[in-house]
Amino acid sequence: MEEPWDFEFLSRIVDGFVSFLSEFVDDWLANDMRVSIFKILFSWLVVSLIAIHFAWKFYGNTVNDMYYRQGTGGKNGGTPDTAPHRSGWESAAGDNLKTHRE
Q: Are 51 and 43 in contact (CB under 8 A)?
């Protein structure tokens, strides 16, 4: 009993999708202002996504290495919160840290 209902439901979905596509193609081929604006914005979106893809392909490893840099002696010569001659444990144990008081 449920098979005809499932087929009818699927058939309605496919018919709705086909009618939407036919209306979309008709609008796409028309020389209307809103279609022209849509084409411009859609082209801008596609070009931007392609540019982001190639930029990430080219610079992705560099950005990833900068973000996940390990230790105090990275590529840029150390982190600003520790001195190069001390380890992180020594500077935390021997210094008095300033606290915020109201």
A: no
pTM over 0.85: no
Residue from 92, 62, 89 nearest 74 by CA: 62
Using an 8 Å Cβ cutoff, are 82 and 88 in contact? yes
User: What pLDDT score was predicted for residue 3?
Assistant: 59
Q: Specify the 3-state DSSP secondary structure of 86.
A: coil
**For residue range 54-81, what is the model confidence (pLDDT) as tens digits?**
998 988 888 777 777 665 555 555 555 5
Taking a C-beta distance cutoff of 8 angstroms, is the pair 78, 72 a contact? yes
Alpha carbons 61 and 7: distance in angstroms, whole number: 49
Q: How far apart are the first and last CA of the chain?
A: 75
